[in-house]
Automatic annotation (TrEMBL):
GO terms for biological process: response to stress. It comes from the Bacteria. This is Transcriptional regulator. It comes from Pseudoxanthomonas indica. Gene3D superfamilies: Winged helix-like DNA-binding domain superfamily/Winged helix DNA-binding domain (1.10.10.10). One of its GO terms (molecular function) is DNA-binding transcription factor activity. PROSITE patterns: HTH_MARR_2. Residues 6-136 form the HTH marR-type domain.
Amino acid sequence: MAETSSPCTCFHLRRATRQVSQIYDRELAAVDLSLNEYSILRRTSEAPRALGDLADALGMDRSTLSRNLKPLLDEGWLLEVRGEDARQRLLQLSESGRARLQLARPHWKRAQKQIDQAFGTEAVARLHAELQALTDCLRPQEEAA
C-alpha cells in the first residue's frame, strides 16, 4: 500500500498527476505526441488563440508554453498568425496539425478509458468537478472578476 499520510495537497496531486500523465504519454507516444503537445493542439483546434489565452486555458505560464510550442511550430502542426491588431500573436492549428490530432484522438480515448475503468466513471466525473472547483477558488482574485 502506498504512503498516504502526507498532509500536503500538492504531494498528493503531483503523485497522481505523474501516474495519470504516464498513461496518456504511453498512448500518445504511438503518434509521436506528448500529453502537453496533444493538449495544445486540442485547445487550438476550434479557433486561433492568443498566447496568453492559451496559457491560461492550459494552466501554464507563458515561458513554459513557448517552450512547448517550439516543436509543434517546427513540425508545422501549429501556425503563428496575426490578430486584428498586428502585434497580437495567435496560434492556429494547421491542416497537418488537424490530421495529427485526429490520428491521436483514439490513443487519447484509450488512455481516458483506462483511467475511467480503474477509478470509475462517476469517480472521475466527481474528481473533475472537484479539481475545477479547486482551480476556480485558487485563481487570483483579479482574474476571477
